[in-house]
Amino acid sequence: MSYWAHFRVWRGDSDKGELVDYPAEVNEGEVVLDIIHRLQQTEAQDLAVRWNCKAGKCGSCSMEINGRPRLACMTRMNTFAEDEVVTVTPLRTFPVIRDLVTDVSFNYTKAREIPSFAPPEGVEPGEYRMQQVDVERSQEFRKCIECYLCQNTCHVVRDHEENKEAFAGPRYLMRIAELDMHPLDSADRQQAAQEEHGLGYCNITKCCTEVCPEHIKITDNALIPLKERVVDRKYDPVVWLGNKLFRRGEAANKNR
Amino acid sequence: MTEMTDVTEHDKTVEVHDYDVVVIGAGGAGLRAAIEARAQGKRTAIISKSLFGKAHTVMAEGGCAAAMGNANPNDNWRVHFGDTMRGGKFLNNWRMAELHAKEAPQRVWEMETYGALFDRTKDGKISQRNFGGHTYPRLAHVGDRTGLELIRTLQQKIVSLQQEDFKATGDYEANIRVFHETTITDLFKADGAIAGCFGYFRSTGTFVRFNAPAIVLATGGVGKSYSVTSNSWEYTGDGHALALRAGATLINMEFLQFHPTGMVWPPSVKGILVTESVRGDGGVLRNSDGKRFMFDYIADVFKDLYATTEEEADRWYTDADNNRRPPELLPRDEVARAINSEVKAGRGTPHGGVYLDVSTRLKPEEILKRLPSMHHQFKELADVDITKEPMEVGPTCHYVMGGVEVDPDTGMSRVPGLFAAGECSGGMHGSNRLGGNSLSDLLVFGRRCGAGASEYVDGLAGRRPAVVETDAAAAVDRALLPFTTAAEGGENPFVVHLELQKTMHELVGIIRKADEMEMALKKLEDIATRTRTVAVQGDRKFNPNWHLALDLRNMLLVSMCVAKAALERQESRGGHTRDDFPVMDADWRHVLLVLSALGEDNVEMVRKEQIPMRPDLLDIFEMDELKKYFTGEELGGHRADQGERA
Ligand SMILES: Cc1cc2nc3c(=O)[nH]c(=O)nc-3n(C[C@H](O)[C@H](O)[C@H](O)COP(=O)(O)OP(=O)(O)OC[C@H]3O[C@@H](n4cnc5c(N)ncnc54)[C@H](O)[C@@H]3O)c2cc1C
Ligand code: SF4
Ligand code: SF4
Ligand code: FES
């Protein structure tokens, strides 16, 4: 059942690095992460890799396997031919720390720039009432395991360091959509999505959706609807006015 | 590429930070504690070994138990308290179980105000699902990814607090800062009280010290000492070991929960969890003869509560008020032992498990909706489509009931300034934890620890213990030790780790015997020697074999605690099953085994009496039930003995 595979793993840090060849034993049912662990137990004790759950739930083990952004714990070895070279490299969009581990702080910075859930005024804990159909849209986005594969793949930032400042990336634009669709969120988010978080950079290529291990329809269900809301808002004077009036009304209520 | 480095070349610089409260651990317990400490105006640091948002809590699937009564209005805190005590075989710290049952609903509702989106009932409330040992549907959930929802919500709440601070001060990290990928290896005391802690940044390998009068341990469990486990690499018992070395005590370490349903095939995923929701939602267990064997394993204490025929069990799913529950939903220890016995008797599956089948019980659409991540997990990792075929499952080391002995109300350990919450604390779950009671435990006692730590800091009135510089220097040397031994040619830490796991798995596993445990203790001594001389390759930058070399020390100390306590307790109860003492013994119920450190790498154990349960809590149960667990003289305060109280 078991065979020897040819692994080629990127070793190095932010200064320098190289692809190193390793022969590696593979047993039935194993995934790429198992092989990396076996290398640690044998000839590459100090090979750096992130992982936690080994079941596709934590989003730690993101890397590029034969050039494709993937979770190493969910990439079965039987998806490769036995004589195929398996090349494992760190995520390209983020700076390397060591071997397969990259500096993902970009994502934490972006997360902090998105205004948080704004709870409805006057609704006490325990009094929240929402229908299942209404929460389902946001729930789809909350399946996100923050593996950053979409952030790594999106061409807006993949080879364009200069866009990182202005663009939140698919995961965090989706976060805005999630809050915008939350039945009880009381903030206005659409304009900021466009003006502050770079929604306009997205040209709906769907590359993010393709790599999402949670199969979240990022582009179709989050980004496009968010763009439509922004557009409606800009060009439909009635919607625009409606929103304004509604918000004023709300503000007036608060003052009373 | 890798070279040996001489320890004298190492950079011993230590970055120093000052905080009011330092929380070690960024799972549910740690994050909730930090939110509370910050709410009480304390400058708070959160430290975690993995990235922010990846702690073990993220893996929890089934749900969070809280008697909100949304699915069945008969539910209330008393019923939840009763279920928790029963599940723990009445060895629980009753005060913790009481606080937990009373406060869990409030903590869950609070999560909604932070932005959590739980699944809903028809009338728009939080939906609640059935789980083993819970009388009513009680688990708030989001499909089968409840832990992810919990941790993300708490993470986002912390971000929102940082945004508030940014507005006020221009600095996101003015009052609450997350130091992720940072491992704490030592705690410091001065004049008997907590003064700070020490560790390293994983990415650079450089050192950091936190001066703080209050530390909350929220480091989770110990499962990585076992070969078959649902736990991740983080579960090396760091908090347990740090507490011991700082002079605190551990209780209940003999009680480990082996979850009945872990994956058994393929080998590389052996141990990965199959959520109990599969059974809660209708999944049944069968042996290789196709028999629903759980009906044969209903212990006497549970006879009145569980269905005795398949027909009654099936009716329960639609009419829970008039039928008894299916025995698949017995507490986990019962189900795990039953599976173990079936496999031993030769009625197991080809890969040494039993069948768990939901495909014959629910429509494919239902399965996809209620158990999406289980469907995904089996499809991707085992080529099994759970809407069409049964799964193969067997027991896996899942949760440690034992942990730091704390004051129930404040979470403080025996060491002033040292607190513990979540899986690394002990007492709440007694000898066996009910599913769903951990996530609620994290929220209830995380918050209480945050409050307790804040109050403690206030009580110091500015008189903060100062870290002793020689202690700080010793911590640096201890952390660098594996590099020193490297020059002398020791073993690969990964190899020593495998040996430790094998020892615990085979000799102090689900079914225990005195001679095997004695052998385990001997082997542990030998492994301890090997651990002291493991050699690491490479430098200090994100170096997993160095990290493991340091974690090994903790795993060893904790394994020693488990083996010693398990050998001492001569009865079977909850997560502790003795082949040589197969029955539960009321004379052991009121005894706690308390462990403390003996030097740096050994432990000693004493027996301690439990505090008798308050009479009003005793009254929640019928006398007949209590008699199955308690000795006669312990029940004097019950209403039946006093004439019914008003
Ligand atoms: C697969 C699975 C499913 C589960 N499902 C459920 C469920 O449905 N319901 C339920 O109630 N319970 C469930 N549990 C149990 C529950 O998830 C855990 O008990 C709980 O999440 C533990 O939370 P915690 O806050 O105590 O610790 P964790 O979430 O484990 O966090 C521990 C934290 O401590 C940090 N840490 C550890 N050591 C150090 C150190 N030395 N220095 C710095 N940081 C450190 C870690 O990095 C981490 O951030 C499940 C467990 C598993 C494994
Ligand atoms: S759809 Fe938008 S966000 Fe997604 S990859 Fe394409 S450009 Fe990037
Ligand atoms: S949206 Fe999908 S790909 Fe992007 S971070 Fe979340 S889980 Fe990963
Ligand atoms: S290890 Fe958690 S997603 Fe791979």
Task: Annotate the secondary structure layout.
The complex is a heterodimer of chains A (256) and B (646).
Chain A: E1 3-12, E2 17-26, H1 32-41, E3 62-65, E4 68-71, E5 85-89, E6 96-98, E7 101-102, H2 105-113, H3 132-142, H4 149-153, H5 155-158, H6 170-181, H7 190-195, H8 207-211, H9 218-235, H10 237-255
Parallel strand pairs in A: 1-5
Antiparallel strand pairs in A: 1-2, 3-4, 3-5, 6-7
Chain B: E1 14-18, E2 21-24, H1 28-39, E3 44-47, E4 64-65, H2 77-87, H3 94-113, E5 128-129, E6 139-140, H4 146-169, E7 176-179, E8 182-190, E9 193-201, E10 207-211, E11 214-217, H5 238-245, E12 250-251, E13 256-263, H6 277-280, E14 284-286, H7 310-316, H8 332-344, E15 354-357, H9 364-370, H10 372-382, E16 391-400, E17 403-404, E18 418-420, H11 437-460, H12 469-486, H13 493-507, H14 514-532, H15 544-568, H16 586-589, E19 591-597, E20 603-609, H17 615-618, H18 623-627, H19 639-642
Parallel strand pairs in B: 1-10, 2-3, 2-11, 3-7, 11-18
Antiparallel strand pairs in B: 4-6, 5-6, 8-9, 9-10, 12-17, 12-19, 13-16, 14-15, 15-16, 19-20
Bound molecules: flavin-adenine dinucleotide (FAD), iron/sulfur cluster (2 copies) and FE2/S2 (inorganic) cluster.
One iron/sulfur cluster binds next to helix 8 and helix 9 of chain A.
